[in-house]
Amino acid sequence: DSFLREVEPSMVSLERAGYLMSAPHFMTWRCDGDVSDAAPRMECETRCIYGGRYCAPDSAAALAMGYDGAAVVEMDLRFLCFAREAKEMKQSFQWWTFSVRLRSDCSMQSKRFDSACAEGVMREMGMDDAFVDRVGECVGDVHADKPHPLLEDEQQEQIDARGTGRGAVVLLPTLVINGKNQYRGRLGRASVLKALCSGFAEGLEPQECLGDALEVNECDSEDHGGCWHLSDDMGIQTFTACVDTFRGRKCVCPKGFKGDGFHCADINECDEGGAATCDATALCHNVQGSFYCSCPKDFKLIGGVSCVLVNHCDGGGGDDKVNGGCEDICLPRKGGVRCACGEGRVLATDNRTCDEAPPAIGTGTGKGGASLSGGAIFGIVLATVTVAGGVAYLAYRSHLDSEIRSIVREYIPISSRDDISNGGLHVPIVPVPDHDTL
After folding, report:
1. What are the helix (H) ranges across 113-177?
2. CB of 139 within 8 A of CB of 81?
3. Can you name the residues that pair with 381 across neighbouring β-strands?
4. CA atoms of 186 and 162, how far apart (whole Å)
């Protein structure tokens, strides 16, 4: 009992982490000999279940507390059934906890060595009624005269009927490692863990194998086990190639360094083809064993690797101007903002506020005739002016489009500048009114 309590936390930890798969086993005997006489038949009934097939010897202490060998075998079977159902739920580690709780809460001394107490422990461990019922169905009618599959398997396991090479189990308790190695050492946490940890390849041992009680950490020595090591200029961080293992230590250059473990050199992650993940928009800085990214002026770091333009329109530049100081539309640009105005308004001379756009020139009515009249001449002149005005408008529109695209380019992250096209963005442009021909 003390061994189970001592080792249970480590075993649960190893099994939950996937380093270990364990299963309980129990030894039973058959009630042999001539049972036609009353005395042998009575002896089988008190020591055995399932028609004398699975028996445990009576102990004086158990008998004194009112429990015989048959009660012991029945509880062992209940324990096996619990372990099987827990394994089906992919929680096989639960049997360690159940074992400790069962011996603590349902002891013979407390007169609670029975199925009711065992089922209560299951429920306290969070098992639902369906689980408890399945365990009860697995135990079955212990007075029936028939084989029980779980107990049949147990009797085959104890004599190594499958020929694993480990031999028959003759001593209790016995720990079998990797299905074929019988542990013959002391039943204590440190001793058993040492035996288990010896089965792991060097450097792949779980943390449970590297505790002070199990091995000496050579990497804690001043010379780091003879491996390469380096302290930074501030003495805050130490890089070491020493890797503690259950059997000793290995020298392996840490991440960010290259070499044989006895001599290591820094890897420049910022070199072409290096491990640095800084975007093309960011600046890469190599440091001992690593790197970091930064941004040029007027850009800020996003996600530790990318740079985007600081948006002064929303106060991102550290000033407290609402909307970047613009009355209407604020367009971020490198180092500040540019203001613009919506439809029907134009930017004032202060480049911040907006004025109403001037009204369009109205439409006139010409007087026609067969001869070239003065009105006609005026109409021709005005038409010429209108055409010239249209050409000027097109030139102005082209200049305005170019300026807007320039502003937007400063707002889009650097890496996206080549993707800007005339049709890919919509920016409000103040229209210049067309002039009707008079």
Report:
1. 115-124, 129-139, 149-158
2. yes
3. none
4. 27
Q: Rounded distance, CA 162 to CA 153, Å?
A: 10
H or E element in which residue 39 lies: helix 38-47
pLDDT digit string (tens) for 83-121?
999 999 999 999 999 999 999 999 999 999 999 999 999
**How long is the chain?**
438
How is residue 21 written in tokens?
């798969």
| CA 2, chain centre distance (Å) | 36
> Which residues have CB under 8 Å from 301's CB, separation 6+?
282, 293, 294, 295, 307
Q: What is the 3-state secondary structure (H, E, C) of 87-130?
A: HHCCCCCHHHHHHHHHHHHCCCCCCCCCHHHHHHHHHHCCCCHH
Q: Give which of 210, 244, 245 is closest to 13, Cα–Cα.
A: 210
Element (H, E) at 259: strand 257-259
Q: What is the pTM of this model?
A: 0.52
Per-residue CA distances from 178 to 33, 175, 198, 222, 245 (Å): 36, 10, 11, 37, 21
Q: Long-range contacts: 132-138, Cβ < 8 Å, 24+?
A: 134/81, 134/85, 135/78, 135/81, 135/82, 135/85, 138/77, 138/81, 138/84, 138/85
Give the model confidence (pLDDT) of 191-236 as tens digits: 888 888 877 887 788 888 877 667 677 888 888 888 999 886 666 6
**φ and ψ at residue 301, rounded to 5 degrees:** -85, 130
3-class DSSP state of 417: helix
As to burial, measured by CB atoms within 10 angstroms (0-12 exposed, 13-18 middle, 19+ buried), residue 214 is middle
Nearest Cα residue to 312 out of 292, 332, 283, 295: 332
For 400-407, the CB contacts below 8 A with 24+ separation are 400/429, 401/429, 404/340, 404/429, 407/331, 407/333, 407/338
Go through 285-321 and write b for each residue having 16 or more CB atoms within 10 A of its CB, e for each that does not.
ebeebebbbebeebbebeeeebbbbbebbeeebeeee
For 88-109, give one letter per residue: b (16+ CB within 10 A) or e. eeebbbbbbbbbbbbeeebebe
Q: Which two tokens stand for residue 2?
A: 């003390």
DSSP secondary structure code for residue 17 in this structure: T
- Mean per-residue pLDDT, 238-243: 89
From the DSSP assignment, how many helices (H) and strands (E) are in the chain?
Answer: 10, 18
CB atoms within 10 A of CB 370: 5
